[in-house]
């Protein structure tokens, strides 16, 4: 990844260099993402593929597991793609905390084999680096599609970083030409509330039906069914649109402002593993994973110190048991000195 000169020092202002390359591939039958991340000297690589067979993903602390060198995406038995620019790249530099951060977004085309299928799909490359503040939290969405008249469309939307009113990384590309768009908000669906079958997913965005989850994340309740496509309703569809910190209050159904509806969710709640829930607090690895997650993503150090205390306690307990066992073996008895012989 070709970094700007200002984002090459390993540490600046007490903050380690964070850099990553992320490639998203978008299609009707298969979607995928691939990433290689470095926070200081700590590497991480991940990939995920979503197709008719469901979601498959893997995260490794070995960057070679995912090859994202310029022009390629390679993961053994998962992807072998050539990635070429397919539009005008944009790059911005902004302040985050007391330091600078940089990002470049490049529309691309991915051709090759993905999940065992030959593909030719739109993609987006995210190259980012900088000295982000310790607490870094952002919401980001990117994708691709076509307009009704057949023009190619890509988008990159974000809140939390590079999200100023101007000079942001928010872009919509139409036939490869970028245009900056205004600030956005994200309304997130709770896990387990989206339909699982393709038939149910197809019904979600049709007149006369909407997934309860899509309404619920906006705080909608009531009775009735929408008579327009919720995907096309836009801002006028809400009396009070939801934001990242508050929920909306109603859905505009048909021609009656303020009307709302309720629709039974079409997917079963995910099954919980009660046995794992029960033993989770007693496994030292649980605390190690939580501490590493906090160190990588940022935030307060409470879970890290908690993990250190737990690991010290487990270590002390193991040493104590070892000492007791060893001491018992040091006590010699007559039977041990002169074991009974039998002829």
Structural description of this entry:
- The chain has 3 domains: 5-180, AttH-like fold, CATH 2.40.370; 186-271, no CATH class; 274-331, no CATH class.
- The N and C termini lie far apart (79 Å).
- Mean pLDDT is 76; it is low at 188-194 and 205-270.
- It contains 7 helices and 15 strands.
- The longest helix is centred in the C-terminal third of the chain and has 29 residues, at 302-330.
- Helices cover 20% and strands 32% of the residues.
- By secondary structure, it is α+β, with helices and mostly antiparallel strands.
- Strands 3, 4, 5, 6, 7, 8, 9, 10 and 11 form a 9-stranded antiparallel beta sheet that branches. Strands 12-13-14-15 form a 4-stranded antiparallel beta sheet, with no helix packed on it. Strands 1-2 form a two-stranded antiparallel ribbon.
- It is elongated, with a radius of gyration of 26 Å.
Q: What's the β-strand tally?
A: 15
Percent strand equals 25-35%
The CATH topology annotation of the largest domain reads as: AttH-like fold
Structural class: alpha+beta
In the CATH classification, which architecture of the largest domain applies?
Beta Barrel
Q: Rg, please? A: 26 Å
How far is the first residue's CA from the last residue's CA? 79 Å
Q: Roughly what percent helix?
A: 10-25%
In N-to-C order, the SSE pattern is: EEEEEEEEEEEEEEEHHHHHHH
| Assigned CATH class of the largest domain | Mainly Beta
Biggest sheet record: 9 strands, antiparallel
Number of domains: 3
List low-pLDDT spans: 188-194, 205-270
Shape label: elongated
Number of alpha- plus pi-helical segments: 7
Summed over residues and divided by their number, the pLDDT gives a mean of 76
């Amino acid at each position: 990844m070709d970094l700007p000169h200002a984002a090459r020092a390993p540490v600046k202002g007490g903050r380690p260099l964070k850099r990553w390359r992320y490639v998203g591939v978008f299609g009707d039958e298969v979607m995928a993402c691939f990433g290689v991340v470095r926070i200081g000297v700590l590497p991480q690589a991940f990939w995920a593929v979503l197709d008719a067979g469901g979601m498959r993903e893997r995260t490794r602390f070995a960057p070679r597991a995912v090859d994202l060198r310029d022009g390629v995406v390679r993961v053994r038995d998962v992807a072998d793609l050539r990635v070429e620019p397919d539009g005008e790249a944009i790059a911005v530099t902004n302040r985050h905390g007391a330091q600078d951060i940089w990002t470049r977004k490049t529309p691309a085309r991915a051709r090759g084999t993905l999940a065992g299928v030959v593909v030719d799909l739109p993609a987006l490359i995210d190259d980012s680096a900088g000295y982000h503040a310790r607490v870094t939290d952002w919401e980001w969405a990117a994708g691709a599609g076509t307009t009704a008249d057949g023009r190619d469309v890509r988008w990159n939307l974000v809140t939390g970083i590079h999200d100023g009113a101007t000079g942001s990384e928010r872009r919509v590309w139409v036939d490869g030409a970028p245009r900056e768009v205004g600030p956005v908000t994200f309304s997130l669906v709770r896990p387990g509330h989206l339909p699982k079958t393709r038939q149910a997913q197809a019904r979600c965005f049709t007149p006369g039906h909407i997934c309860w989850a899509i309404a619920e994340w906006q705080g909608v309740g009531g009775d009735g069914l929408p008579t327009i496509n919720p995907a096309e309703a836009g801002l006028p569809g809400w009396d009070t649109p939801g934001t990242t910190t508050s929920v909306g209050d109603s859905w505009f159904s048909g021609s009656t402002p303020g009307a709302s509806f309720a629709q039974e969710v079409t997917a079963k709640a995910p099954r919980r593993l009660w046995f794992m829930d029960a033993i989770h607090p007693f496994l030292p690895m649980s605390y190690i994973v939580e501490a590493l997650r906090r160190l990588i993503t940022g935030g307060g150090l409470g879970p890290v110190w908690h993990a250190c205390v737990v690991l010290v306690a487990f270590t002390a307990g193991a040493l104590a048991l070892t000492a007791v066992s060893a001491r018992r073996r040091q006590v010699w008895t007559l039977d041990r000195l002169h074991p009974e012989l039998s002829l």
